[in-house]
Amino acid sequence: MNKNLLKFSFLFLSVVFMSGISMAQNLYVNGSVVNENNADDLSVIEGVQGTIYFNIETNTLTLKNVDIYSEEYTSIYYDNSEKLLTVNLSGENHLSCIETEPNCNALITSSDNGILTLGGADKPTLIGIYIKSKLTIKDCSVAVDALNWGITGLWGTQGEILEVNNSTVKVNASYNGCVADLEELILINSGITAPENAVFDDTLHDIVIDGEMVVNQEVIISPLNNIKNIENTADIQIYPNPTKDIINIKTKEENFNVKIYDLTGKLILEKINNTNIVISNLEKGIYLFELTTEQGTTFSQKIIKE
Question: What residues contact residue 306 under an 8 Å CB cut-off, 6+ apart?
């Protein structure tokens, strides 16, 4: 079956399973419409466990150690183009799938290192996160393990935007694509750290390696500040920064590897045991400098090319 036809089938089934519910409503949890009658305690919905409630005024859905699963329904389905949906995580939460409709933006975030897991062996799903607008993942951890698509848009040309801001996102999909069909991937204080040489291709609209979509390999996007910063390390210094032509490295390490990435996670340059790195051919902008020692310790710092 054509991969996008399969996505249409997934969407069709989501709508069919919610038939009989007024589509004028805009938030569904496990197939049940969220309204003023159940918003204070959504654990009354069949298949929903944990602390989960919805603030109608702020349009915020709060999950605290929540478990949601059904073979029929999408865990969270959002269809309101007038308001941003905020999903606030606390503790460890496990769902099957999240889906948003066109022009229906959503934010997944946490103030206390909340975790969201979608899919996996005990909650199998064709798609982990299915977006047709903008989804922002900020200050939290999200892990997706799906059968066909991990995080995906529809065509990659309809405003499907994934923004990852200071978050850890791990995505695996067995058959079609880990991160696929996005019009844009925005990384803020984050970078693609696995697999090696994986980048987002804005022509193919996928995360790829050598032009091939990443499938059945875990894609990891990590916060840049998870890596020890050179500025706080007396044994390693780089200068000047900003720079126009060259980066000088002062270090006591004899054996080390240097990599420079752009902000999409694309590897731009790699050198071994070189303390004077010429970058005059790079375009002006911000890059990520990464130095790995023989012992496996990694230091990182943003550099500015003037």
Answer: 242, 243, 244, 284
Reported as a single tens digit per residue, the pLDDT across 181-212 is 999 999 887 888 889 889 899 899 999 999 99
Q: What is the pTM of this model?
A: 0.74
Four-way CATH pick for 227-305: 2.40.30.170, 2.40.50.100, 2.60.120.260, 2.60.40.3080:
2.60.40.3080
Instruction: Say which amino acid occupies 215.
Output: V
Phi and psi at residue 4, in whole multiples of 5°?
Answer: -75, -30
| Chain segment 238-256, per-residue pLDDT in tens | 899 889 999 999 988 889 9
Q: How far apart are CA 70 and CA 96, in angstroms?
A: 8
CB 17 within 8 A of CB 47: no
Domain boundaries, the chain: 3-223, 227-305
